[in-house]
Amino acid sequence: MTAPATHGPDPAGRSADGPNAGPPSAGGRSSGSAGPDDTAAGFDPGAAAGRATDAILRDTLHGPHRGVVVDSPPGAGKSTLVVRAARELAAAGRPLMVVAQTNAQVDDLVVRLAEKDPELPVGRLHSNDPDPYDKVLDDLPNVRKSAKAADLTGLDIVISTAAKWAHVQGVEPWSHAIVDEAYQMRSDALLAVAGLFERALFVGDPGQLDPFSVVGADQWAGLSYDPSASAVSTLLAHNPDLPQHRLPVSWRLPASAAPLVSDAFYPYTPFRSGTAPGERTLAFGVPSDGSGPDRVLDEAAESGWGLLELPARRTPRTDPEAVRAVALVVRRLLDRGAAATSERSPGPRPVTADRIAVGTAHRDQAAAVRAALAELGVSGVAVDTANRLQGREFDVTVVLHPLSGRPDATAFHLETGRLCVLASRHRHACVVVCRAGVSELLDEHPSTEPVQLGVTIKFPDGWEANHAVLARLSEHRVSWQP
Amino acid sequence: MRGNAFEAKVKADGGTELLRLLVERLGGTEPPPGPGAAATPDLSASGPEGRVARTALALREATGSGGWTLLDHPLLALEVAGSPAYLEPDAVVVRPDGRWTVVEIKSFPMIDGSADPSKVGAAARQAAVYVLALERVAARTAGAEVADRVLLVCPRDFSNLPTASVVDVRKQLSVTRRQLARLTRIEDIADTVPEGTTFDLEHCSGDELTAAVDSVPASYAPECLAACELAFHCRARSREADAVEALGRGVRGELGGLTTVASVLAAAHGESGDPRDPTVAALRRAAELRAEALASAAAAPGRTGGGDGRDGPGPAGSLSACEAASTGGTSSSGATTTSTRTRSRAGTGEAAATGHGHGRSASARTES
Amino acid sequence: MSLISTLARMEAVASGSAQPLATVRHRRISDRPLVLVPLTTAGEAGAPLGALVGTERDAPRLLTVAQPRDRDLRFAFLGELAEAVLPYLDEYADAVEPAERSEADPETGKRVKVTVELCADAPQIVVPSRPGIDFVRLLGRSMRFRRTAEEDPDAAYPAPPRVPLLGRWLTHYGERARVPGSSLLLAATDLLNRHWATGQSSLEDQHLGALLAWIDPPGSLSGADAALHAELDRDPAGQLVCPPAGPATDPAFDNKLLAPAVEAYDRARQALAAAEDGPRAEERLARLTAAEHAIRALLADVMRPTWDSVWHALDLLRELPEGGRVADRWTRDRWSFTGHRDRVRAGEPPQPRHDDAVTAAQKLASRESAQGQLEAQEALDDPLVLAGRRLSGEAFLSEVTEVVMAYSESRRPSPRPLVTVRTDDRPQLGEGVKVYRSLDGKPQSAEFVRYEEDGSPVLRLTDRMGRAKDPAPGSVPEKGDRIAWTLFEHDQRGGPKLPDPEDTPWTHGGPPGADGTPGVGAPDGSGAARGSYGRTGTDAAVGPDPMTEEDFL
């Protein structure tokens, strides 16, 4: 049932080198996986993560390099790291700018910083649009807000989006920057802001959705500074000697989920769960009624994964039966009084609506699920696309498989980042709702991706990753009809 | 052909230039061998099995030799769908440390360091199969390791000088492994075909052949036209069946369970289908909007004289097309508007000529 | 593909003829375009074989290469191509009008308006198909680094005069063709596919002959039947009746007709070289000339149908009225043409092999902006395009049912009238969502406030009502007005200013050339290394391509 919590290094022994196999360059190094207690027998996640964090902070505060790169798999404590690095840089008297990708991320960071250190003077640089920032920030006494960078000079930390930073001109450069979600930032966006700082810490998850362009950018593919590539790939192509670190432990994903997500989406940079099998449990106050939704919930509670399979059929995107099945699973999850036990609290905690998310590939699917939930009288559950669920965390997630019922498998639906985001939001269990026949659909759409010379591959093939996930999920299959 | 001449040029002098390129691109601790220093074993043998065995032996010898070896057109075997397939890479290089590298020599050019991505992709998939076949041999050879990065050699720019690029085939390897594992065995396919079916070109009439081909299931898509000689046959069948796929795989995405053109049109025009089905509802709405727009355009005033608005404002009639729709086809309120705004932007270069736009952060592909 | 265009394709299947995808023409068609039908040599990776070129549909200029492996013949071809194309471009270079643009003042650094020349019109090149555009790009790349005897007296293989200049222009046109909505270099298939849906797949739509057959079938044939004939019909000799639009040729043509003719030409040439006396040489020269004429006739025959098809396509497109905002985009094309003219005149070096980091980012940003603008403008110009946006909830048609005057809560209250509208469309409105309408050709914005009980959206107008307390006349809609609102902006906002190339930051490799960038003869193509030499922007770094015995071009 439950996959082993640990697994050996990848067969090619490449795990420590990152994606670029070959002789390690003089200064380039990677940490986070190798260590004395990293053997299968006595893995101590806290110690491994602590060592990685210490090394990151050492390189950031005292290292000779202008940049430090940190890869963070889902739930590995990226935000915690950013907050800690920001506070230590501020404490060291280094004026710091923080670059995030969305306003929500910026506001979230400001709030986290204020929670940790209410005295810290923080500037929130915002746009001229109406409602440019979360009103919560108005209650934080040491947070100054302005649309002009000049108003915020002298503050220890100034935080804004990449888009806003790109318009800042004629100011003294900051001595340090933290670039958050750097893998979701495009190279050209980094080009527009890199003149604002001397050195930077780049943090992000290489497995989530890649940045993209609405127009063709093939003519620059393979160039180190391809403007449509991610900021990190440009940075490393030009500065291959920068220290590259990896947060080795996911605190979010349970022991049941980390191996699947790591194998399918991070085959060259594996990570582990911070909790051991059995440390997290999910139980129901009400026994199963024998229906598909109840049986799949039992399976997911037991093993961490559940695949609720509907009969094979080609359907519209908003497949009414699948949408209703998703809504029913959520309804039953609430009705059966799910309770989650974890390292966070001594006893079980009820899984309330705000601890549940539904993930879809398309917005119209999310809208249909919201409507179906409303019909069943459920409110307060987050229902959104992979795109918008990025970076969020829940106890239980219910996912409408991106390929369910589809007549075709397009690059959009095969994008590994999409499936990775959907399969890595949960702390306890993930239920996937899907029509049968996806394996056959994948077989009909063999991967024939074009290859651009000089483009470093970072990630597994979408076609293969989908097959890999499906093969693992099928071990937890429950069919809709009893 | 030029392709063969190019390959011969690349491999000339015992592969000196080829090995120089390999070391230059792939790096490593050993310097490239001088002219004639690499072993180039004779791989000829009788029959494919003989050549495969000869290749395996040469690989074993090369791996233990501690020197450089260039295998020119080795022959490898790989089981595909239960039957052996023979594969002939352009070359395999064995390095002194025992690592084997597949070399693909192609005649398409690398211009300024880039090449046609679809051709490189095809070469990468091809090379991945060679790597897989080599891995089977390496598993039985002490000290051998097969590199998952292959060397692609092409003519440089517009010359016939060779240049090379390293292609990482890990993705193609994992995909090919899974595809091989999932292939239906040939015997299983044969079991589904009526007894006595044959594709023997010499002993069959055209009709018999057609019937035989028809008895094998095929899933046609327009992409087949570029790759398969039977595609026109399958297309005709697909069109006869009124299948939506004949218009491209992409059209199926929003059609749900509707698989024929006639059923889509009937649903769109309200002649069949359940309006509660989201597919049917969307089709009806699309058909209505399309008909309304076409009607409003036909009724819109000022639809003559297009294309003459060279230097001045565009013809008011065309600008107002949409506004005419918005005014319900009555008098065009947009008639006084002008469409040419004077651009006052710097005009050097394409970037300046269109202004540099976009203040959006790159988030993620549209999910609408 | 949107559902509306999918539906159009299916209607084309059912009716047997193409269906409209647009009610106006969304691209500029010049009064006097230059049509270029190029052919390439099979198996020779881009070596030109022949071309028809010109502005007169009845008098194409025929250019051929009798033996594509002969460098002298190829250079002669390119020289002739330069003679055919450059005078056409030159015609447009000197007809100018004054125009304003803003420039940074060299002393103060402030943006100031300056009056400069803008070419009154721009030359337009039309090729048959998308591979034709790629071929124009390839020709441009192969020519712009050549050196003429005048530029480099020691060149082993000097290019004919003006060939490098043609290379620069074709490179510019090829690059401009990547900008969404531009019309300097167009493919006939792209033009037709933008405006009509056929009953076949988009892959089959790349066949110019079949595509035209769907749209305007000859005689009494249905479009579907005519397309099948165009695709497949062969004459008794096995040659396609409708040859491919190129630049690739049909293998049957290559093998059965072209190869024997080229062999005959080669033999005649050898015979001429071996001729020992005058009379014999004269006779053999006549044979060589005849062999060359035979090749010219073959190529003329195989290109002529495509040439005629391109003009046929232009005729069809001219029947559509031009979209209102096409002229705006064409003005950008004129700026683009004028800008390149100025760079050539200023003696700037040819375009580098690779864009530097800043230029690449600028181009990408401007193309994304052009894409957004194109989508908005097409929807505003064309109710059928707008229908697609309405279907996806990005636009809606409405009738104003109520207007309530309101003001902003500031010290100087501005008008912020609330407009209630009724719509049958289903726009994706939500809190704070902005919508736009076209008012006198310029966008006026509003924001969604709430739904009334009957489901009617209430919008708050937020701009373009003047500075006074009372809104300017005509700036606020009235009850009963029918208005098309869009959820997308009509204009694109300008992006951030990128650094100058010489200020390229360390994250992107620093300023071009700063780290010992190799120029001429740089090793190419090895992975990440591409970038480290991927900037040869300065004149010293742009060297000619190395020449060998067997160059492709």
What does this structure look like?
The complex is a heterotrimer of chains A (482), B (368) and C (553). Chain A has 15 helices and 20 strands. With 482 residues, chain A is of the alpha/beta class. In chain A, the strands form four sheets. Chain A has a nine-stranded parallel beta sheet with strand order 1-9-2-8-7-3-6-4-5. Chain A has a six-stranded parallel beta sheet with strand order 17-16-18-19-13-20. Chain A has a three-stranded antiparallel beta sheet with strand order 12-14-15. In chain B, strands 1, 4, 5, 6, 7 and 8 form a six-stranded mixed beta sheet that branches. The longest helix of chain B is centred in the first third of the chain and has 25 residues, at 2-26. Chain B starts with a helix and ends in a 15-residue tail after the last helix. Residues 302-366 of chain B have low confidence and may be disordered. Chain C has three domains: 3-247 and 306-347, no CATH class; 381-486, Elongation Factor Tu (Ef-tu), domain 3, CATH 2.40.30; 499-553, no CATH class. A six-stranded antiparallel beta sheet of chain C has the order 12-13-14-11-10-15. Chain C is globular and about 100 Å long. The model of chain C is unreliable at 515-542 (pLDDT under 50). Chains in contact: A-B, A-C, B-C. At the B-C interface, α1, β8, α8, α9 and α10 of B face α1, β5, β6, α3 and α10 of C.
The poorly predicted ranges of chain C are: 515-542
Which whole number gives the mean pLDDT of chain A? Answer: 88
Shape of chain A: globular
Alpha-carbon Rg of chain A, integer: 23 Å
Query: Approximately what portion of the residues of chain C adopt beta-strand conformation?
Result: 15-25%
Oligomer: heterotrimer
Rg calc of chain C:
28 Å
Order of helices and strands of chain C: HEEEEHEEEHHEHEHHHHHHHEEEEEEH
Count of individual domains of chain C: 3
* Low-confidence blocks of residues of chain A: 1-40
Blueprint of the fold:
The complex is a heterotrimer of chains A (482), B (368) and C (553).
Chain A: E1 30-31, H1 45-62, E2 67-71, H2 78-91, E3 96-100, H3 103-116, E4 122-125, E5 143-146, E6 157-161, H4 162-165, E7 174-179, H5 187-193, E8 197-204, H6 231-238, E9 244-246, E10 249-250, H7 258-265, E11 272-273, E12 281-284, H8 292-303, E13 305-310, H9 320-335, E14 338-341, E15 349-350, E16 356-360, H10 363-375, E17 382-385, H11 386-389, E18 394-400, H12 411-414, H13 416-422, E19 426-435, H14 438-444, H15 462-473, E20 477-479
Helix pairs in contact in A: 1-2, 2-3, 5-6, 7-15, 8-9, 9-10
Chain B: H1 2-26, H2 47-65, E1 69-72, E2 76-80, E3 83-87, E4 91-94, E5 99-105, H3 117-138, E6 145-146, E7 149-155, E8 162-168, H4 170-182, H5 186-192, H6 206-214, H7 231-240, H8 261-268, H9 278-299, H10 316-326, H11 349-353
Parallel strand pairs in B: 5-6, 5-7
Antiparallel strand pairs in B: 1-4, 2-3, 4-5, 7-8
Helix pairs in contact in B: 3-4, 8-9
Chain C: H1 3-15, E1 19-20, E2 34-40, E3 48-54, E4 61-64, H2 71-93, E5 96-104, E6 111-119, E7 125-127, H3 130-144, H4 163-176, E8 185-187, H5 188-195, E9 196-197, H6 208-215, H7 223-232, H8 251-274, H9 278-318, H10 326-345, H11 357-381, H12 383-391, E10 395-404, E11 418-422, E12 434-439, E13 442-451, E14 457-461, E15 482-486, H13 529-532
Parallel strand pairs in C: 2-7, 7-8
Antiparallel strand pairs in C: 1-9, 2-3, 3-4, 5-6, 10-11, 10-15, 11-14, 12-13, 13-14
Helix pairs in contact in C: 3-4, 4-10, 5-9, 6-7, 8-9, 11-12
